[in-house]
Amino acid sequence: MAANYRSFRHSVPWLILLLEAVFILLFYFTFSDNAVLSISYPDFQDINHMVVFGFGFFLTFLKRYGFSSTGFTLLMVGLGVQCSALMEFLSVFLLKMPQEDGLRKVTKATMSVTAVVISAGAVLGKTNPVQLILMTVVEIICFHISKSINSIFLQVPGNSSMMHVHLFGAYFGLAVSSCFSEPLPRSEKNASTPKSDLLSMLGTLFLWVFWPSFNSVLHSVKWKLIYNTYIALAVSAVTAFTLSAMTTKDGKFRVAHIHSAVLAGGVALGCTDHMIQCPWIAMILGLLASVTTILGSNCLQRCLYPALKIHDSSGVHFTFGFPAVLGALAQVILIAVENKAHYPSLGHFIMFRVGAFCVTISIALIMGLITGLILNLKPFKATPVSKYFEDQFYWEFPHLAVGF
Questions:
Q1: How confident is the model at residue 11 (pLDDT cuts 50, 70, 90)?
Q2: Transmembrane region positions (predicted)?
Q3: Is there a contact between 290 and 268 (Cβ–Cβ < 8 Å)?
């Protein structure tokens, strides 16, 4: 086992130092901040808390993978924000887009990293630090390429294309996960405890509280988005409790249902942008998103995943993927209703929005599959199946015997 530790010691630090040297050099030549401030620090703080605290604890449900879930999330966020900020500048430079202030850039960069953290949930416990670092850099680049295609060729506003982060992260992560071996049957490490479930629910509460800020931070008229998002989250939370009791044999609430479905309304509302004018529409969307999440989780885990041999560690497909798809479909319907008076141009609007949706999923799946194949190459030393979901493979435990 010592050889495995030496390989990480000689690869992870040098890889991180190399990336940091490249980032520092590129920031030296590219960074400038002459724009007028457009986002307040409290707004940025909400997004930062949501990504670091929310997702950091959200992924701690595995009983022997808590250190890695929170620690590796922080590592991915730290590297991903730097990479995303550089990609934002590259977009401004190459595509002649308007210059933005530094706080707005770092806010958008933090939001982009959400895609990486969601994808990491699909491969949670099966990847080593080297693989996670490489996945972070590749996915950030691919997400920005997808966003640029949507903005330039399909005329989707930048704020709207940024909301595809959940869609991209879920399907990129699933594609990467399909390239990894499934865990051992009935592995005792691939399970939770009451303590780990409680910590994970703490992350869910963080995400639930800060999600209205995530959906509204890039828009000038925030109050309507905040109101609609909060209403949708409230409805999806109540619906999650209802369906959880209805779908269990003994009528008790299931933590896994609450853990995922209470966020569904916020994910779906993000894709509809500012198009929802009435709160009752947001309520219906929140209800449908929660129903889709719970019923979709039962269907996927019993039918689709065993057939395709895909192991989605934290259920990102039904937690983020399904609600994002529902939100994208709702966006198309709202566009059709809003522009029904302009019938000749209606097909144009719908075609471009559907095209953006297809481009996002296609790039996520194709690049995720390529990334997964690359991560399983011998130089990146895939984690053995016997060490899946195991903190001790990466972290020091001084109270345990050295002869692990």
A1: confident
A2: 12-31, 47-65, 72-94, 132-153, 165-184, 196-214, 226-246, 282-304, 316-337, 349-377
A3: no
Label residue 62 left, alpha or beta by phi (over 0 means left) and psi (-120 to 50 means alpha): beta
Tell me phi and psi for residue 225, to 5 degrees. Answer: -65, -40
Q: Which DSSP symbol is given to 391? A: G
Instruction: Identify the H or E element spanning 373.
Output: helix 343-375
Residue 3 has pLDDT above 50, yes or no: no
SS3 of residue 1 by DSSP: coil
Full-model pTM = 0.92
- Whole-number Cα distances in Å, 369 to 130, 179, 318, 319: 17, 7, 19, 20
Q: Is the pLDDT of residue 92 over 80?
A: no
- Domain architecture of the chain: domains with CATH: 40-382 (1.10.3430.10)
The number of residues in the chain equals 404
Provide φ and ψ at 62, rounded to 5°. -75, 135
Whether residue 67 contacts residue 81, with contact meaning beta carbons closer than 8 Å, is answered with no
What does the pLDDT look like over 177-216, one tens digit per residue? 999 988 876 677 888 899 999 999 999 999 999 999 999 9
